[in-house]
Queue: 2 jobs
Job 1
Amino acid sequence: MDADLVRALHLVTEDRRGARDDLAAPHHLFQTSTISALMDARYDGELTIGEVLRHGDLGLGTLAGLDGELIIVDGEAHVGRIDGSLSPVDPSTTTPFAVVTPFTPGDPVTLTDLAHDALLARLDAMAPAAVSAVRVEGAFRRLRLRSVPRQRAPYPTLGDVVKEQAEWEAGAIDAVVVGFRFPAEAAGLEVPGWHLHAMARDGSTGGHVLVADIASGRAWLDAADEVHVELPPGVHVRAASAAEREGISRAETRPGTG
Ligand SMILES: [Zn+2]
């Protein structure tokens, strides 16, 4: 693992038997598997959503078979699917990749009229640590979301799956956006930069955020000082190659042309 990342956070790997007393300690992130494993088409569920929720009440990820975009808000799990719908997730559903934290933010900051890049710059300026969790809530001028189609084995790579992704405009809506910022050095572990998922306040839609222009709202941030990564058998934490970083960026952070 990259020395800069080790300095930026306290990384703890554990197996499924690595039970801890402090399942949901403040400022700890819990993550199952890694973004590199997801890029390598490991889409089978490892943990149940019920188990994931024991580690935190705010987060994101996906479901087994890459069945949509997982959004965890206020301890409730929702999934945004490729048809633009949003549904509650049964706790017995499994996930191959999820990140959660018991959200313990500081005081909120007011946000007014920020286009996507300006919003991310503001969050960067506010972020209390290299690894931070965020919740943004308010009236959005524009929210462009994406989701991915459910896959069946043998699984294609994530790079191929996102070519089939659906993107849609949620329009001007009240929404909750949640997610995390990881440093560039975390590329093998997580999506570098801000990784955000959103759900409409009225429950009408949700997904992975491609563009979020906010009209007015508030943001809460929480510093993470430890990242607990539970590694499925055969998955190792390692730094991503330049090609892998490019693939992650293409799969997770760039809007498509469609
Ligand atoms: Zn996502």
Job 2
Amino acid sequence: MSFSLNPPIRDWHNKVVWIVGASNGIGKALAQELVRRQAIVIASARSLENLQELSPAPRRTLALDISVPEMVRDAVRTLEQESLTPDVVFWVAGVYHPMGSDRLNLEQVRETFNINTIAAYSGLAEVISLWDKTPNHPRHWSWISSVAGYRGLPQAAAYGASKAALSYFAEVSYLELKQRQIAVSLVCPGFVATRLTQKNSFKMPAILTPHQAALETLSGLARGAFEIHYPKRFTLWLKFLGLLPDWLYFRIMRHALPSQDQH
Ligand SMILES: NC(=O)c1ccc[n+]([C@@H]2O[C@H](COP(=O)([O-])OP(=O)(O)OC[C@H]3O[C@@H](n4cnc5c(N)ncnc54)[C@H](OP(=O)(O)O)[C@@H]3O)[C@@H](O)[C@H]2O)c1
């Protein structure tokens, strides 16, 4: 049996789409693909220069640092003033600092949680207060989280935990926003070749290009899925590992630990 958890989105023509984290990687590829599909794209990130170099160009570039709540508030106010209330928001922005629990860098822990998790709350709160001004419109919020949030992974002490929290929040927001016609999806990519994964020194299985990740994301929205995870040849294995009892999971994952001399 198959049924949609969200209203499927197949036609992007004239949809107002705000992509937060559009200057690089997956968000950039999403922005480019959605401009091609004739959506009205607003592209945001910290680097205005990178946003202005996007090709094809989005309708609007709006630089902001999501870890500064006032900047998020101002950005949403700008969207309202310019009659660009988004139909769809892709909350893509994220940072990754590989970190073992035996080598914690508290400054990087704080940055990871501020950007990957805490900022998500201010983003959603601000956009909901804008959406509340024109209720009864179908809207969609898409969280870009990660398979790293499924279970404890080596070197993901901060990143994996920040994404586990984000995925949890995604489920809560799905449950509670549905009755207000706000659909919510949770995107959990495996490895994608971007600036973020350049930090990994190990061989990343089943790695995708950002364009492939963007297409997988959009096809998940076209199916009306809640969780959109890809590539399945990798993510289904992780889901299977997630079902194992702790003793077996930890035994398998111990083999993935970096050797001591890599520190
Ligand atoms: N690559 C992967 O394998 C992978 C796998 C699973 C999940 N993800 C998730 O996918 C998302 C995109 O990652 P990516 O791989 O495409 O990384 P990326 O190439 O580094 O892109 C990250 C984007 O987020 C923006 N960003 C970061 N901090 C920001 C801030 N404080 N305010 C506003 N924008 C900010 C960056 O722009 P500026 O630097 O210009 O601000 C950039 O546009 C992240 O949430 C990541 O956790 C990635």
